[in-house]
């Protein structure tokens, strides 16, 4: 699991802080699936790879919990499709 990605349980989102800015993915744990509703990065983080690092951490968390990922967000869906090493997690 990526130690940089933290699970903010109270706000139902995974967070990655970089240079004081935040990238996050809102989620819901539904049965054995981790439903990713939305991924967002601060404007200053766009194009830096922060959202990808966040998604890698989310995927590792899902794997460590024995969950699949159901991406409702277009970015999350595209990221998983591009990273074949996580294709087994796609729900």
UniProtKB/TrEMBL annotation:
<protein>
    <submittedName>
        <fullName>N-acetyltransferase</fullName>
    </submittedName>
</protein>
<dbReference type="Pfam" id="PF14542">
    <property type="entry name" value="Acetyltransf_CG"/>
</dbReference>
<dbReference type="InterPro" id="IPR031165">
    <property type="entry name" value="GNAT_YJDJ"/>
</dbReference>
<feature type="domain" description="N-acetyltransferase">
    <location>
        <begin position="6"/>
        <end position="91"/>
    </location>
</feature>
<dbReference type="InterPro" id="IPR016181">
    <property type="entry name" value="Acyl_CoA_acyltransferase"/>
</dbReference>
<dbReference type="InterPro" id="IPR045057">
    <property type="entry name" value="Gcn5-rel_NAT"/>
</dbReference>
